Amino acid sequence: MRCYVEPSPAGGYFVRLRGEAAPLSRHDTEDEAEAAAAAYERGLARTDTAEHVVLADGSEVRLRPVRAEDKPLFARAWSRLSGESVYRRFLQPRHGLSVGELAFFTEIDHVDHEAIGAIDPAAGEGVGVARYIRDRERPHAAEAAVVVIDDWQGRGLAGKLLRRLTARATENGVRVFSAHLLASNDAMLSLLGRLGEITVTRRNGPTIEVDVDLPVELPTLEHTLRAAASGEVRHRLPPP
Predict the structure, then answer these.
(1) Largest CA distance in the chain
(2) Closest alpha carbon to 159 in 127, 192, 196
(3) Tens digit of pLDDT at every position of the chain (240 positions)
(4) Distances from the Cα of 104 to the Cαs of 57, 143, 177, 202, in angstroms?
(5) Model confidence, pTM
(6) Is the distance from CB of 174 to CB of 143 less than 8 angstroms?
């Protein structure tokens, strides 16, 4: 087992991942902790509901929505991010993810908070994630971010993740992505620029806040089938 349970010095029980210093989650009872550890193990073994994608350099990844049991993937991927990559994502130095942060990043509703993860199928490791969180004051907008571990950067993975995140956002009524980033982050600005025109809404020293209008996507096959089933779509036969 890669995940194990141990008592917390402050009471309760931690679930930990072998090789990682920070715990994955804390639970009130040992039974709850054992159940969580088993769920994490099942999550590490699952390969279903994932889209197989080949990147420009021929490398392969699986893309799928993030699940609560993905905490081990997040913990391990964090250790493979350089300090520079962490700073570009969070705009400050960070030294690992807390139990609360792991819960926030993985226990999501997939409507107001969505995340698409990328997994290296050969190693079973998480290598990137794209995320949006809806703005409560602007329900049509959501803050978006993408992070890819260093040795997978430059392969086009960030763009693949962002496009799939955009599709999920438009399905859920999000029409604008916002982002808070370094003005020198040309890679992220280029990715956002592929979606639409970038509007700088605020400048604060080396950082900027931007809005990007999301493209209007063609209906997906799933949406078309649903519409047809409800009678909203009528096939037009060609004239004889």
Answers:
(1) 80
(2) 192
(3) 688 999 999 999 999 998 888 899 999 999 999 999 998 888 777 766 689 999 989 999 999 999 999 999 999 999 899 999 999 988 888 888 899 999 999 999 999 999 999 999 999 899 999 999 999 999 999 999 999 999 999 999 999 999 999 999 999 999 999 999 999 999 999 999 999 999 999 999 999 999 999 987 544 444 444 444 444 433 333 333
(4) 33, 15, 20, 26
(5) 0.81
(6) no
Q: Given the structure tokens 């997906």, which residue do they identify?
A: 220
